[in-house]
Automatic annotation (TrEMBL):
<dbReference type="InterPro" id="IPR050616">
    <property type="entry name" value="CPA3_Na-H_Antiporter_A"/>
</dbReference>
<keyword id="KW-0812">Transmembrane</keyword>
<feature type="transmembrane region" description="Helical">
    <location>
        <begin position="6"/>
        <end position="26"/>
    </location>
</feature>
<feature type="transmembrane region" description="Helical">
    <location>
        <begin position="164"/>
        <end position="186"/>
    </location>
</feature>
<keyword id="KW-0472">Membrane</keyword>
<protein>
    <submittedName>
        <fullName>NADH dehydrogenase (Quinone)</fullName>
    </submittedName>
</protein>
<feature type="transmembrane region" description="Helical">
    <location>
        <begin position="198"/>
        <end position="219"/>
    </location>
</feature>
<feature type="transmembrane region" description="Helical">
    <location>
        <begin position="134"/>
        <end position="152"/>
    </location>
</feature>
<feature type="transmembrane region" description="Helical">
    <location>
        <begin position="73"/>
        <end position="98"/>
    </location>
</feature>
<dbReference type="InterPro" id="IPR001750">
    <property type="entry name" value="ND/Mrp_TM"/>
</dbReference>
<feature type="transmembrane region" description="Helical">
    <location>
        <begin position="33"/>
        <end position="53"/>
    </location>
</feature>
<feature type="transmembrane region" description="Helical">
    <location>
        <begin position="368"/>
        <end position="389"/>
    </location>
</feature>
<dbReference type="Pfam" id="PF00361">
    <property type="entry name" value="Proton_antipo_M"/>
</dbReference>
<feature type="transmembrane region" description="Helical">
    <location>
        <begin position="231"/>
        <end position="260"/>
    </location>
</feature>
<feature type="transmembrane region" description="Helical">
    <location>
        <begin position="451"/>
        <end position="472"/>
    </location>
</feature>
<feature type="transmembrane region" description="Helical">
    <location>
        <begin position="110"/>
        <end position="128"/>
    </location>
</feature>
<feature type="transmembrane region" description="Helical">
    <location>
        <begin position="280"/>
        <end position="298"/>
    </location>
</feature>
C-alpha cells in the first residue's frame, strides 16, 4: 500500500474543514459533508488493517529539518488502533453533534464542525507519528484546535474553563515534554520510534531513566495524571459533543496512546522491566485511579461525575504501560477501545438527557427512565462495561490488565483495579438505578420524551458496541498480537 496515503489521511479532515466552512449557510449540506468525511476517513484508515497486521510498517518522511529528523509518518499496531477508534467514533459523534446542536439551538455551529474536523486531523497525525518531533507538533495542534470547542459558549464560565484547559496542557507539553525530547536526542542521537526502544545502549542509570520517564508522562498532560488533571473537569463547560470528543474520541485517548507509544517505542518494555524506571509513575497512576473515583462519587453534576470517571479510567491504560509487561500493554491497548465505546455512550446519554429535559444533576434524574428508556438502558450497558462485568467488552481489558499485573509481580495493582471496579459500581450504577427505580419528581415527564433521533441512534450503536466487543474481541487481539500471549 502506498505510503503517500499516510499523509493524505492526516490532511484529509483538515482539507475538508474548508468545505464544511464554505457550506455553512446550508446546514444539511454542512453536516452531510462532515459525516461523509468521517466515514471516508475511517474507510481509509481501515484499509491499512491487513498490511499492518501482516507485519508491514508503512512509513513516509515529508520534510527533513535535520539529518535523520523530519516530519515522519509511520503506522504500527498501536497507532492503527488509535486511528481506527478515533475515526470510527468521529462518524457517530458528528451525527450526534448535528442532533444536539440543532436541538439546543447552539450558535456558531459551522465553526464548531470546522474545529471538529481539525481536531480529528491532529489526532490522526498523532496516531501516524513516526518520531517524537512529529508527535509533538500534532499534539500541540490538537490542543489548539480543541480550545475553541471548549470555549464554544463564550460566557465567563467557558472562558475560565478554556484558560485552565489551555494553560495546563501547554505548560506541561512545553515545560516537560519538549525538554524530554531534547534530552532523548542528546542521549541517544535519535528521536525516531524503534521497536527495541532507544535507551538500551545509552547507559542511562535507573534514576536518570526514571526521571526522564516522569518528564514524558507528566509532559503528556492529556493523559490527565494527578495533579495535572484539572483541565479535564474544567473542559466540561463545553457542549456535550465536545465532551464526547475530549473523553472518548481524540484528546484523552491521544494522551494515553502516547504513554503506551513512549513506553514501547522510546523506552522499551524490556528496558523498563529490567531497570524498574517506570514504577514511580505506576504508583502515581494507581493513586489517580482511586483518587479520581472517590471524587467522582461526590459530584452531583452528571458531566462532572463522568469527567472524574474518565480521569480514573485513563490511568488504567497508564497502569498497563507502567507495569512494563507485554500483557499490560495488551490490556492498555484494549482499554483504549473498550473505554472509548463505553465513555462516549455515557456522554451521549448525558447530552440526550439535557437536550430532552435540560437536567444536569444526578439528583434530578429520579424516575426519568420511563420517559427515556433507550437512553438510560444505554447508560446502564456502558456503565456495566466500565465496571468490567460480562457480557460487556470492558471485561477483556481489565482481565489483561490484571494478568499483566500478576505477570509483573504487582499484586497490589490487582487490588487497586478490584477496588476501582467496586467504586465504579457506586458512582455509575446509581444513575440508571435512580432513573428506573426511584419515585419520579412531580415535574418528571410521564410520556415518551427521548432526545432527537440523531442523538438516540449514535448512543444506541455505541452501547451495542460494548456488547459486540465482548462477543468478538478477536479484531483487537489480532491487531495487538505483538503483545498477546503466545
Amino acid at each position: 500500500m502506498s505510503e503517500t496515503w499516510l499523509a493524505l489521511l492526516v490532511a484529509f479532515p483538515a482539507i475538508m474543514s474548508l468545505v464544511v466552512a464554505a457550506s455553512g449557510r446550508w446546514p444539511n449540506l454542512r453536516e452531510t459533508v462532515s459525516i461523509g468525511t468521517a466515514i471516508a476517513l475511517f474507510a481509509g484508515v481501515a484499509s491499512f488493517i491487513g498490511p499492518v497486521t501482516g507485519g508491514e510498517r508503512p512509513s513516509l518522511t515529508l520534510l527533513e529539518v535535520m539529518p535523520g529528523i523530519g516530519l515522519t509518518f509511520t503506522l504500527e499496531p498501536l497507532g492503527l488502533l488509535f486511528a481506527l477508534v478515533a475515526s470510527g467514533l468521529w462518524s457517530l459523534t458528528t451525527l450526534y453533534a448535528a442532533g444536539y446542536m440543532r436541538g439546543n439551538e447552539e450558535h456558531a455551529q459551522t465553526r464548531f464542525f470546522v474545529c471538529f474536523a481539525l481536531a480529528i486531523s491532529a489526532a490522526i497525525g498523532i496516531a501516524f507519528s513516526g518520531n517524537l518531533l512529529t508527535l509533538f507538533i500534532f499534539y500541540e495542534m490538537l490542543t489548539l484546535s480543541t480550545y475553541p470547542l471548549v470555549t464554544h459558549h463564550g460566557d465567563t464560565e467557558s472562558r475560565n474553563g478554556g484558560r485552565v484547559y489551555l494553560g495546563i496542557l501547554l505548560t506541561t507539553s512545553i515545560g516537560f515534554f519538549l525538554p524530554a525530547i531534547i534530552i532523548t536526542y542528546l542521549l541517544t542521537g535519535s528521536i525516531t520510534f524503534d521497536d527495541a526502544g532507544l535507551f538500551g545502549e545509552a547507559g542511562l542509570g535507573v534514576l536518570g531513566a526514571g526521571a526522564l520517564y516522569v518528564l514524558f508522562l507528566y509532559g503528556t498532560g492529556k493523559a490527565a495524571l494527578m495533579p495535572f488533571h484539572r483541565w479535564l473537569p474544567a473542559a466540561m463547560v463545553a457542549p456535550t459533543p465536545v465532551s464526547a470528543l475530549l473523553h472518548a474520541v481524540a484528546v484523552v485517548k491521544a494522551g494515553v496512546f502516547i504513554v503506551l507509544k513512549l513506553t514501547v517505542y522510546v523506552f522499551g518494555v524490556d528496558y523498563l522491566a529490567e531497570t524498574g524506571a517506570s514504577q514511580f509513575m505506576m504508583w502515581v497512576a494507581a493513586f489517580t485511579v482511586l483518587g479520581a473515583s472517590l471524587i467522582a462519587m461526590t459530584r452531583d453534576n452528571l458531566k462532572a461525575r463522568l469527567a472524574y470517571s474518565t480521569v480514573s479510567q485513563l490511568s488504567y491504560i497508564v497502569l498497563g504501560a507502567t507495569m512494563a509487561s507485554s500483557l499490560g500493554i495488551l490490556g492498555g491497548g484494549m482499554h483504549i477501545a473498550m473505554h472509548a465505546f463505553a465513555k462516549i455512550t455515557l456522554f451521549f446519554c448525558a447530552g440526550a438527557i439535557y437536550t430532552a429535559t435540560h437536567r444536569k444533576n444526578v439528583s434530578d434524574l429520579d424516575g426519568l427512565g420511563f420517559a427515556m428508556p433507550i437512553t438510560f438502558s444505554a447508560f446502564f450497558i456502558a456503565s456495566v462495561s466500565l465496571v468490567g462485568i460480562p457480557p460487556m467488552g470492558g471485561i477483556w481489558s481489565k482481565w489483561y490488565l490484571m494478568e499483566g499485573a500478576a505477570d509483573a509481580g504487582h499484586s497490589a495493582i490487582i487490588v487497586v483495579l478490584a477496588i476501582s471496579s467496586l467504586l465504579n459500581i457506586v458512582y455509575l450504577l446509581e444513575i440508571p438505578t435512580r432513573a428506573f427505580f426511584h419515585n419520579p419528581r412531580p415535574d418528571t415527564p410521564r410520556h415518551w420524551q427521548e432526545a432527537p433521533w440523531a442523538c438516540v441512534i449514535p448512543l444506541s450503536i455505541t452501547a451495542a458496541g460494548c456488547i459486540v466487543w465482548f462477543l468478538y474481541p478477536l479484531p483487537f487481539l489480532t491487531l495487538l498480537a505483538p503483545w498477546a500471549p503466545q
